[in-house]
Amino acid sequence: MIQPAKPELVTVNIDGKEIAVPKGTNVIEAARMVNVDVPHYCYHPKLAVVGNCRMCLIEMGMPAVDPATKAPVIDPATGKQKINWIPRPQIGCGTNVSPGLHVKTTSPMVKDAREGVMEFLLINHPLDCPICDQAGECKLQEQATGYGRGYSRFVEQKNVKPKRTQLGPRVTLDDERCVLCSRCIRFSRDIAGKDVLGFVDRGSYSTLTCHPDKKLDHNYSLNTVDICPVGALTSTDFRFKMRVWFLKQTNTIDTESSVGVNTVAWSREGVLYRITPRQNDEVNDTWMADSGRVLYKQVAAADRLKSSDTVNILVTKAAEFFKSGSVAVVGSGRSSVEEQFLTKKLAAALKVSVSLVSRTAPGDKLLISADRNPNIRGALVTGLISELPSAQLTGLAADIDAGKVKTVVSVGEDLAAAGLTAAQLAKVSIVYLGTHANATSAAAKVVIPTLTVFEKAGTFVNQQFRIQKFAKAVPGLAGAYDDLVVLSKLTVAAGGASAADEINALWTAIAAEVPALSAMLYKNIPETGLLLDGTAWAGLPFAEGETLHYKPAATI
Amino acid sequence: MAVIQVERKPLTFAERTYIPQIIGGLWVTLKHFFQPTVTLQYPEQRPEIPKGYRGVPTLVKDPNGREKCVSCQLCEFVCPPKAIRITPGEISAESDNAHVEKGPQAFDIDMLRCIYCGLCQEVCPEEAIFLQNQFSMSGYTRAEMVNNKERLYELGGTLPDEHLKWDKKKTAEEHGNAH
What we know:
The complex is a heterodimer. Chain A is of the alpha+beta class. Chain A has 3 domains: about 10-115, Ubiquitin-like (UB roll) (Roll), CATH 3.10.20; about 130-135 and about 155-240, 2-Layer Sandwich (Alpha-Beta Plaits), CATH 3.30.70.20; about 310-535, 3-Layer(aba) Sandwich (Rossmann fold), CATH 3.40.50.740. Helix content of chain A is about 20%, strand content about 15%. Chain A has helices spanning about 25-35, 110-125, 140-145, 185-190, 220-225, 310-325, 335-350, 375-380, 395-400, 420-425, 440-445, 485-495, 505-515; strands spanning about 10-15, 15-20, 55-65, 85, 90, 100-105, 165, 170-175, 195-200, 205-210, 235, 250-255, 260-270, 270-275, 325-330, 355, 405-410, 430-435, 445-450, 460, 465-470, 530. In chain A, strands 1, 2, 3, 4, 5 and 6 form a 6-stranded mixed beta sheet that branches. A 5-stranded parallel beta sheet of chain A has the order 16-15-17-18-19. In chain A, strands 7-8-11 form a 3-stranded antiparallel beta sheet. In chain A, β18 (about 430-435), α11 and β19 form a beta-alpha-beta unit. Chain A is elongated, with a radius of gyration of 28 Å. Chain B is built from 6 helices and 5 strands. In chain B, the strands form 2 sheets. Chain B has a 3-stranded antiparallel beta sheet with strand order 2-3-5. Chain B has a domain at about 55-160: 2-Layer Sandwich (Alpha-Beta Plaits), CATH 3.30.70. By secondary structure, chain B is α+β, with helices and mostly antiparallel strands. The chains are: A alpha+beta, B alpha+beta. Chains A and B meet through loops of A and α3, β2 and α6 of B.
């Protein structure tokens, strides 16, 4: 294995603590490594440094050398090299470390500077924390607790700026709250590649707006809401819905495409309120697409499938159709690795092969790839399929027409969307495992309602062959059953050996049977995922183009 | 444990007749005929509630009739027995109070859970919730014991407001910044 190049290290001294950090690190990041917090607004680790908020002011100095001889100047009092402290504060975000750099983050000068910056920021900031959605996760609120004076010396009228400006279809702007950090401008320009935001007017009248005739309507607009350190940019969807301190955070994975964006689902008492990105420097940095943030709505959608029968009754009904033989199984690239493993068991018990449906659409070169199935590689890894699936189930359609197939078990795939005609659907008995009503569930003889990704735990293998786990955010809908339980019961009903239907127990079986996943357990997979060896499938013509942190292998 | 034998004194003749005791009792009764009454004819008569009394929590309006609560949910957060339940909502742009932006869609206080601790009043940044003088809550069903928003405003009424923060905000907004 090729070792990554070792970065050149530079030793710096932060608040008396020596630490070696990679060259090019700025003082905020270096301080973070020794658990020293340097407050900041405009600085964001994934964005360009502008240094306009002045909150990260620190005191710095360099070891003194004699200008003529270049010999170190020794302080007679301590017997150590003297430090020449710069007599005014410097910004931490724009200062890169250099050998021997000394930094003070707690000196009276730094404290004064921070308090001064805070006072200026709070001059025009409205006192509407009670109605502000950012309250609880607001950097200004946090720093005001640390460095604010607690009362205002400002007797003049506060600035009036536009409130409730619709910047785009999903983002609402309250300009009075804006601290002019320009994070949103830099994100839109540099990361999303859509230069739509900018400041107009000067001084305290500076106002964030869209450029004339433009809207903040690209598919990454809600990231500006995430990175806004105050409550200026708010999500129109989440606005005034719930205070963030009530919400429970659960790590999940975006199912939009094979990028596998790491996300957090925010819920309270079993109700999902929003989805935000979770930092994973190997996959999505700190970003995600807007389209992935509305997926939580599928949980409480009106067309959710549910059944008043118990799972055993439903499975018994389904097993009636297995008896006559001639069964076909349609798996899904949307199922988790565990479900695909059990789908394979089910197909083995029925002694049939499994077909999958591919789902492709042009990628956006950022965080949505061309393959809109989150887990096609999971199906390859578990051995459910060995070739990439096609978009249409032409083979199955031909078999139905020829009368070779009498029963179709579909694990969450809409067969009508996959190219089967209504006549073909009517010709066979369909056992449909799914979450939402569609043409297939309407035509199905047995519908077994299952859970959405937010209601169950599992793993997906993304385009990099990184296995990433998601946890259960909310309890499952009443009348819908865990996919693992359903598949495991169906396997038994089809005459197969019983498999575990609980994820941790199932993983012992997966680790034992799937070579690529051996020596791995669900609970041992780190939150940022684990890279699998995908060389065995490197020759397959995957649909993905280049996205953030992913380059497709050169086609041979 | 040692047992102490207490000697019971024999009753005197006067005590054995009971007459002095009866006369003593009648004398106390007679005395009270001429003293001011302390008994209240509850519920027709109600006691005077001391200042700072923590009665049933209520929502209040400001002198202009604006509901003061902005549904920040701090009371819901601080409430030790989790008696408060708020559904926040946006104030429509057509409303006179559109500048406040946020108000409660629903506000329920479960009086079966409330322990009258007053933390909600203490935490409220908008001075919208007060534990007032109402001390008796009763009902025939559990649902009746949950005070909804309407009932809370009915109980709360209007309180004088010294700050009128939102009115000032509205004036500033209408006045605007000349530059």
